[in-house]
Amino acid sequence: MTNPNVVLHVADVHKRFGGLHALADIDLQVEEGKTHAIIGPNGAGKSTLLNVIIGKLAPSSGQVVFDGAVLTGKKPFQINQLGIARVFQTPEIFADLSVLHNVMIPALAKRDGMFKLNMLRSLDSETGIRAEAEHMLEDVGMLGRREMLAGSLSRGDKRRMELAMCLIQHPRLLLLDEPTAGMSRHDTNTTIELLQKIKARGMTKVIIEHDMHVVFSLADKISVLAQGRIIADGSPDDVRGNPKVQEAYLGGTH
Ligand SMILES: Nc1ncnc2c1ncn2[C@@H]1O[C@H](COP(=O)(O)OP(=O)(O)OP(=O)(O)O)[C@@H](O)[C@H]1O
């Protein structure tokens, strides 16, 4: 039976790369307002799954449905327009522009339907969007760095800026790809607090993460991938005690 709270449904998805079955029989249901973590050892298929959701990769079979709309076959920018934002992919930032301008650009692109280069010339006249970008930067603790060049930011600050770039789009679903990778413990804890704050506002999130401290601090539900299949699915407590999960990680690097 269909659960009315499910906002994202990855339905019977398979992805093959030549002879490699990178995703098999994937059925994933993400509920509105929840934080759903996808974990698994290296090579399990996590990035492939995320790329199928955002339209970067086409599944070999199956489909992805978001809020009643079939995403499969749509282009990444169309999926983004439907309310899905992805954070912390390879940064798509303008290194030579200020932090503030970087945060304004996705809001302008959303308002006008796409990014156009001539937007860069009119940034200073967009006072409404500027105020909103400042608000987002304040939210992620970056207002004091708004005039810095994005390219000169530390790794942790760059990620906070990327989060502001996503939040300004007011997405219904936020996808986070290893949001704390390479961060110090201090920056990781700051990011956890920030994501908890966003969670309290009811934003739905899918998070891929290797750091179990981050996963167990944030997730309402966890799906465990191993060799392209979901081997366990449930609450953090269910997953923690599942012998299949412990076995999948044995011999892994995590
Ligand atoms: N474009 C591609 N062409 C061929 N094989 C690929 C491609 N992308 C991924 N793979 C393979 O698919 C499998 C799943 O890879 P994927 O990157 O999704 O795993 P992952 O769980 O994200 O791993 P990690 O935690 O190391 O990032 C791996 O065996 C990988 O080598």
From TrEMBL:
Keyword Transport recorded: yes
Question: One Pfam family name from the record?
Answer: ABC_tran
Q: Does the keyword Nucleotide-binding apply?
A: yes
Q: Which UniProt keywords apply?
A: ATP-binding, Nucleotide-binding, Transport
| Any GO MF annotation of the entry | ATP binding
Q: Which PROSITE patterns match?
A: ABC_TRANSPORTER_2
Checking SMART domains in the record gives: AAA
Q: Which residues form the ABC transporter domain?
A: 8-252
Domain of life, source organism: Bacteria
Q: Enumerate the CDD domains for this protein.
A: ABC_Mj1267_LivG_branched
Recorded hits in PANTHER family, A to Z, give: CONSERVED COMPONENT OF ABC TRANSPORTER FOR NATURAL AMINO ACIDS-RELATED
How is this protein named in the record? ABC transporter ATP-binding protein
Task: Tell me which species this is from.
Answer: Devosia rhizoryzae
